[in-house]
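Archive entry: two folds, one per protein. Generate the first.
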Amino acid sequence: MPQADSLRLTTDTATVLSDSIQKSDSLAAIDSTALVDSLKIHIIRGFEGIPHPSLPSSESWVFGTFLFLFVILLISALRGSDWITESIRTFFQVKERSSIFSKTTMNNFQSRLLLTIFSTCIFSLYAYYLHFEPKSGFHISTYMLFCLATSGFVLFKLMFFQLIGYVFLDNTSLKLARESYFNVIYYLGIVLFPLLIFQIYFPTSLNHFTGVVSLIICIIAAFLVTIKLFQIFFRKIVASFYILLYLCTLEILPLILLFKVFQVIVLIV
């Protein structure tokens, strides 16, 4: 039979154990609370990283677009090497009669179609680059809108040539005018292709130089279009008036309208 002292000792021991257990639980609670608080402090002390700016040189889709256009250019050159060589050789001449060795083939048609797509994409990308603002970012969706506007301009030119040809011109003059005009557009796109790559991926300190060179090339292309029109249609002095009227109403004004559309796209996107 246990004695009273042993019972008191057992009770005291149990009390001490319960107190130690409670203290250990409180310490564990304190430690877990302190750990959570320290984590919160570390989380609060963190800061958001600075996002990488959306620039033409940092966008992967821009590089992919250049690669895609380069492949299109190579395929077009391989499929239409005959008419490209002939057009370069007779660039400043007007052939009243087609060569007996030249013929329109499916390869030539595909080559011209690919060059049209190539030039449209290059002009659209160059226009987007000129209207680009760093705060708005350089996005492929906006570029597609630029391509859509430029494609509408090209379709307008094709429809205009067909309309003028049916009303005022014979088939030979119409074909010469259409081919001469689009040949200038093709070569302009080919020349602007490396200049645009240079402007995007090379130091910005050289952008002014490449911009001036591009402007000069565009002015030269405009003069070439004018020269070809005079070579094809100039028969009398009075014809110069109609040629100048054509240039003002159906070359300069549509270009101004196209750039206005580009500005609207930049504002609404």
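Generate the second and append.
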Amino acid sequence: MNRLKQVLLIGVAVAAVGILASLVATPAEGHIAETGRASDVTLNLVAYSTPKDAYAKLIPAFQATTGHNGVSFNQSYGPSETQAQAVVNGLPADVVEFSLQLDMDTLVKAGLVAPTWNHNAYHGFVTRSVVVLIVRKGNPKHIHGWDDLVKPGIQVITPNPFTSGGARWNILAAYGAQLKEGKTPAQAVTYLHQLFRRVVVQDSSARNALNTFLGGKGDVLITYENEAIYARQHGFDGSWIVPPATIRIENPIAVLKNSPHRDLANTFVNFLYTPTAQKLFADAGYRPVLKSALAGHSFPVPKQLFDINFFGGWDRAQKKFFDRNTGIMAQIENSLGH
């Protein structure tokens, strides 16, 4: 077993233990002293599947700041929609970070996150990314853009759009790119039908999809740019393509209204916007929201970069594409017998 596979298998096992611990463990009782020092406090961090390695550096950096060496963290990582629903169902959480705003809206509607969660200079987003195409060493199938994914014989990996936030970004990137090429909405839907005929595995999350691809399945993986960088940092010898037309990914973060350590949780979230933390995010492959943290990093700018507003916002995109009964993806999955 090569080093990369060992790292990924260990990461999956640790994530599973973390989720179990967060479900059964009672957060340590703590307090904030009058001096503002945190002593023996446990914060519960619930996030989507990919930023675990970033937080492995961010949490120690926060603990090294004045008065926070006594703060510990329970961490849970998994498919974005699944994580949001778990919090609604009672999974302990002080801080949540999701793949997409739609999942944060779920917590707002449940009364767990304040409607003002995004009232900061960065609209509540802590990192950004773009959708890319990861290919194998030497790009043997000659994949250079979206059109190549629907050619005969191509095997595509992308997660399940009904559990994974990353999958939804991927689908919107593919559809939007067709419109940017001058195709009609009907032609863009036809493209999605053709694309999903090439999809051989739909894992529950972006990280699981990466594991499947690195395990040898598929010719191309549609995913976050930060996942491609993560794979490279852990020994993957393939490459990735940033399509000329792709979508800007924005990842939201917030503090729970009912957090027993709300002030400390806000302090942690505020820390994540500092130059130190944003640089650590950038080192882990995420596009920082703080421009100064881009120094030393080279993130290509796609020629036709669009965002969720291109689709009228998440509410409209969710209804049109991802409604489990009437959405475009439900129709496509049903037509394929899934």
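Annotation attached to the second fold: The first strand starts at residue 31 and ends at 32. The chain has two domains: 3-127+251-294, 129-248+302-335.
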